[in-house]
Amino acid sequence: MKAAFLTPAITLFNTDGTLDFVSQEKLYNNLIENGVDGILVEGSSSEFFAMEMDQRRDAAKFAIDTINHRVKLIVGTSNMVADEIIEFSNFVLDAGADAVMILPPYYFHFGAEALLQYYDRLANEIHGPIYIYNFPDNTGYTIDPKTVLQLARMHPNIVGLKDTTVDMAHTRELIKVVKSQVPTFEIYSGFDDNFAHNVLAGGDGCIAALSNLVPEITSAWVKAFKENDLAGIAKGQMVIDRLMNIYAIRSPFLTVLKEALRLRGVISCSHCTFPIPNATVEDDAKILELLASEGIR
């Protein structure tokens, strides 16, 4: 059965706010060596929203050069200025990224007509594959499946969508409406525990953050699907369901995810962009207890 789990990679910083390229390379290599199907950089887990454009370009170029086509690489190029999205998207595509991912405009709510105009312009001016990023909790509204279908029919370079919704109702509707007409269109869920439901409903898998921390577990889950291993699929679901508790340790969860990676020895610093707080001793105790309960060192 077709299934994929891509990692929305975190961005790693030194304590002075500069990019930590040493730890970043270790993270990318660890993900690839543990079998992830692809990597998304500068998505929500990357803190792109708090990075200057020059820093975003540097981070993207480093990812392109380091990953070097070993796995699929998508670069998030979301911005509130369309010209900057277009320029940045073409920059990373020309540099070797496989695709870009773009949120709809946020702050104000936009209807179907405005979204059609928005993605139509982007698709006409970006010379490469585009994934739409639907994240209603953060943008304030959702993209209707019929609008997605119109865009997929209008533009062959709009190739897929990441649907970050807690329940699967919207994702199932996307799969029914869009994939029934454009079977090659890829639909991913954005929450780890929706992976199995997504694939069983006819979707393509997940782009979700726990794979930063436990790529060996998410890769085994994918393998179970490909081998029609029902026991392995069920085991993966139960383990991920329990590991989802890591998101509840602190909000936003990015510090906790980085701290867990530091505690596992993958990275050296869990610093985040201001004003995201640093992890505490109490956070560390909760992280270590959760990892130990699953036999993760």
Mean of pLDDT: 97
CATH top level label: Alpha Beta
Strand order of the largest sheet: 1-2-3-4-5-6-7-8
Number of strands: 8
N to C succession of SSEs:
EHEHEHEHEHHEHEHEHHHHH
Reported by name, the CATH topology is TIM Barrel
CATH architecture term: Alpha-Beta Barrel
Distance between the termini: 30 Å
Please, what is the CATH homologous superfamily?
Aldolase class I
Structural class: alpha/beta
Output the radius of gyration.
18 Å
Tell me, briefly, the overall form.
globular
Largest sheet: 8 strands, parallel, barrel
What is the strand and helix layout of this fold?
Layout: E1 4-8, H1 21-33, E2 38-41, H2 53-67, E3 72-76, H3 82-95, E4 99-102, H4 112-125, E5 130-134, H5 136-139, H6 145-154, E6 158-163, H7 169-179, E7 186-189, H8 195-200, E8 205-207, H9 210-213, H10 215-226, H11 230-243, H12 254-263, H13 281-293
Parallel strand pairs: 1-2, 1-8, 2-3, 3-4, 4-5, 5-6, 6-7, 7-8
